[in-house]
RNase H type-1 domain-containing protein (Quercus lobata), 299 residues
Amino acid sequence: MNLCLQKKNLLIRKVTRTATCDHCNEEVEDTIHALWGCQVLKEVWWNEHYLRNQLSTRYVDFRDLWIGIINSEVPKLAERFAYVAWSIWHKRNATRMQSSSLPFNRIYQDMCDRLQEFQAARELAIPEQIPAGPTHWSPPQRTQSKVNYDGALFHDTKQAGIGVVVRNSGGTIQGALSDRCCLPMTVDEVEALACRSAVLYVIQLGLEEVVFEGDSETITKALNSDSPCLSSFGHIIDDVKSLALNFVSVSFIHVKRQGNVVADKLAKTAKFSPCPRLWLDDIPSDVQRLVLADKCFVD
Ligand SMILES: [Zn+2]
């Protein structure tokens, strides 16, 4: 949960004009208020028996509350708490963005349903067969463009690189991008960020029929799934899906790393070059060599 975005901080950063909680209009909205202290949340937390006699406790901060929860030894309380807290946070953000969310009085029941569903799915779990992506790059259909994206981690500089290459059915470059960003928490997050950059870039290029190809199975699965992505990169996946509505046709597919070498090279290039860098044809020669090698898969 991104604690940096609580309203008190947004006020300091002048994103919002008031630090008062949108729900109760009474107290300053810091994290502990947004997730626990606010009066309107009492009805949500009341559903959890163990918490009933603690509703009036004023915790110093979220950590203080969380430590209380995990030390309670009530079976599965931490799981239920985490899900409900996530829903409350999601609702808070949705309210701000004027998008829909569950009413407070349905949050707890929704959590119970979801946990039950999760439990049932785990009991039935059959290892999911993911068709493995191909091991080499292949051209898109004649009217399409294929966009390969990749991320690279630069732990020493606490940054990450993003590489994007756009090619037509003849394997010719229509555009390429190399950029840097702050180091996210996980590899998947970098891949998700790379995908979002790819989509934004292709919108700028004005292409309409596009195949996006990355080497992260996790991200490809999340992009093709109809269920909400609850991972740390879920909001990026949501962005990508809504941006993708700009295209006439779009798909997100997986390729093994050996098939994504051009994007990989561009992501790694970002470490040493001024960023962002964009190319239309005059691509660096070491990248050009990899593009030519991929061209042998064009009929
Ligand atoms: Zn409040």
